[in-house]
C-alpha cells in the first residue's frame, strides 16, 4: 500500500472509532441526536484538524473532502441507533479510544514525515494528533482529559509513533511499520488498563 | 452591498453581540472590569480567529485591524456600565448568543466561499465560526458548552449556512441570501428555546 | 544581544518556568510521572505554539527544534524529583506563572513585530502568547483559568507588552526594552497578588 493510501485509510479509521467514542460519551450525558452528532464529529475530526493546522496544511482535510465528516457522522448515527451493541462491551469508550489513539498516532506521524518534519517533530505531532480528539471530547463535557488522568496514555501514543519511525529507519515498508507501531500503541494502552500499570508519583509530595 | 462589505458588517456585528454575551456571563460570575473585557473579547473574536486559522488566512483579521477588538471592548464596556438594560430582558445571554450564532454562521460561510471552499466545506466552516465563540466562553467558565447542552444550536447554524448557500445557488444577491440565512438561524434557535423543541435521545440507553 | 537571540532566550526561559508551573499543578493533582511531563509540556509550549499558529509560522518552533520540548521536559523532571524545593515557597505556581507571563508577553510581542505586525496587533499577540499556556493548564484540570479569576493578569501582560513597544519607539535597545517590559509585567502581577489590587466590578449587578 502506498504511504498516501495508507495514511488516508488510517485517518478515516481513526475518525470513525473516535467518532464512536464521542457518540457514546454524548449518549451517556443524555444529549439528543444532534448533540451526539456534534460530539462524534468534534471527537473524530479534532485530532486531524489540529494536525493539519500545525503542519500549515490549510484548510484542513475535513473542509476539502466529505470523507472525514461522513465517517464521523456515520459513527454518530450508528452509535445512536445501535450503541446498545457497543454498550455490552465492558468499557467501550476506553477500547475505542485506545484504537483511535494508536491509529491517529501513526497517521499524524506519517503525514508529518511526508511534509518534511524531522523524526522527533513527527513523533510529537503524532502524539498531539492522537490525544487531540479525546482531549476536546473530555473538556467539552467538563471532565479532566484521559491524557492527564490515566496512566499510560500519551506514553502509548509516543511509543507507537516512535516504533513506527524506528521501523521505517530499519527499512520496513510503511504498511508493516504502521501495523507494528499502531498495534504497539493499542496493546500498551489496553494492557495498562487491564493490568493497572502506572508510573510512579512524585516522591516528595 | 458588495460581498466584502457585507462580510465586514456581519463580522463586526457578530463580534459585538458575542462580546455582549461574554460580558454578561463574566458579570454574573462576579469578574472585575478587566475580566469582563477579557471574556467579552475572547467570546467576540474566537469564532472569527478560528475561521481565519482554518482558512490559512494568518495573521487573523483581529491582528490587522482595530475593528474587531474595538467592537468586543465596546461591548464589554457597554455591558459593564449599562448591562442592567440587557438584564431586564428575560434571557439576554441566550438572545445575544442566538444573534451571534446566526450572523457568524453566514460570515464564516461567506468568507470560506470567497476563499474558494466548496459549499459543504463552507457550511461546515460557518458552523464552526458560529459555535466557536460561545464554546470558548462556556469552557472558560467551566460550563458544558451550549452547543452540546441545548437542543437546536449547531443545527440552527447549519440550517442558516445551508440556506445561505442555497439562496446564492438560486441566484439571489449576497445581501438577500445573508438576510434569509441569518434570520433562519436566529429564528430556529429562538423558537427552539421558546417552544422547547428538541431532538430525540438514543432509543436504547 | 540581537533581537533574534534575545527572542530565543526569552522563549526558552518562558517555556521552562511555565513547565515548572504545569508540573507543580500536575503533582498536586496526584498525576504520575508521565502526566507531570504532559502537563509541563502542554503548559510550557502552548503559548508559543498558539503564537506561531496565529502568525502563520507553521510548523511551530516546537516541531523544528528540540529546545522547547527539552526545556519543558527538564522542568517536568526537575519538579518531579526536586519540587519540594519549589513547594517551600509560599505560592510557587503563582510566582512561576507570573515570570512566564512577563517573559512570554515580550517574546510574543517581539516575534510579532519581527514578522511585520503593527504595534497594536503585536501587543495583542503578546497577551495571547502570555496567557495561552496557563489557560490550557487550568482548563485541562477543569479550573477556571487565572486570566479570568484573578484581578491583574491579562492587564499585567498587556502593560508589559505595551511598555516594550513604547521603549522600542523611544529608541531603546531591544534588550533594555525587553527587561523593562518583562519586569513591569512580573512586578505588576506579583504586586497585585501581594497587595490584593483589584479592578471594580459592574456597578449595577
Automatic annotation (TrEMBL), chains A, B, C:
<dbReference type="InterPro" id="IPR005115">
    <property type="entry name" value="Gly_transporter"/>
</dbReference>
<feature type="transmembrane region" description="Helical">
    <location>
        <begin position="121"/>
        <end position="140"/>
    </location>
</feature>
<keyword id="KW-0472">Membrane</keyword>
<feature type="transmembrane region" description="Helical">
    <location>
        <begin position="34"/>
        <end position="54"/>
    </location>
</feature>
<feature type="transmembrane region" description="Helical">
    <location>
        <begin position="6"/>
        <end position="27"/>
    </location>
</feature>
<comment type="similarity">
    <text>Belongs to the UPF0126 family.</text>
</comment>
<feature type="domain" description="Glycine transporter">
    <location>
        <begin position="95"/>
        <end position="167"/>
    </location>
</feature>
<feature type="domain" description="Glycine transporter">
    <location>
        <begin position="10"/>
        <end position="82"/>
    </location>
</feature>
<feature type="transmembrane region" description="Helical">
    <location>
        <begin position="66"/>
        <end position="86"/>
    </location>
</feature>
<keyword id="KW-1133">Transmembrane helix</keyword>
<dbReference type="GO" id="GO:0005886">
    <property type="term" value="C:plasma membrane"/>
</dbReference>
<keyword id="KW-0812">Transmembrane</keyword>
<keyword id="KW-1003">Cell membrane</keyword>
<protein>
    <submittedName>
        <fullName>Membrane protein</fullName>
    </submittedName>
</protein>
<dbReference type="Pfam" id="PF03458">
    <property type="entry name" value="Gly_transporter"/>
</dbReference>
Amino acid at each position: 500500500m502506498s504511504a498516501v493510501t495508507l495514511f488516508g485509510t488510517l485517518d478515516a479509521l481513526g475518525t470513525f472509532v473516535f467518532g464512536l467514542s464521542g457518540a457514546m460519551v454524548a449518549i451517556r450525558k443524555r444529549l439528543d441526536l444532534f448533540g451526539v452528532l456534534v460530539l462524534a464529529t468534534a471527537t473524530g475530526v479534532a485530532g486531524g484538524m489540529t494536525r493539519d493546522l500545525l503542519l500549515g496544511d490549510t484548510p484542513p482535510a475535513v473542509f476539502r473532502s466529505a470523507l472525514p465528516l461522513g465517517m464521523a457522522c456515520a459513527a454518530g448515527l450508528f452509535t445512536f441507533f445501535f450503541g446498545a451493541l457497543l454498550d455490552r462491551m465492558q468499557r467501550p469508550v476506553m477500547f475505542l479510544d485506545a484504537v483511535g489513539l494508536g491509529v491517529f498516532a501513526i497517521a499524524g506521524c506519517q503525514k508529518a514525515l511526508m511534509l518534511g518534519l524531522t523524526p522527533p517533530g513527527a513523533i510529537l505531532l503524532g502524539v498531539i494528533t492522537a490525544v487531540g480528539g479525546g482531549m476536546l471530547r473530555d473538556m467539552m463535557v467538563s471532565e479532566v482529559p484521559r491524557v492527564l488522568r490515566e496512566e499510560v496514555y500519551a506514553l502509548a501514543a509516543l511509543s507507537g509513533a516512535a516504533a513506527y519511525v524506528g521501523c521505517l529507519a530499519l527499512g520496513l515498508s510503511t504498511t508493516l511499520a504502521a501495523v507494528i507501531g499502531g498495534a504497539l500503541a493499542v496493546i500498551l494502552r489496553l494492557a495498562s488498563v487491564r493490568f493497572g500499570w502506572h508510573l510512579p508519583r512524585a516522591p516528595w509530595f
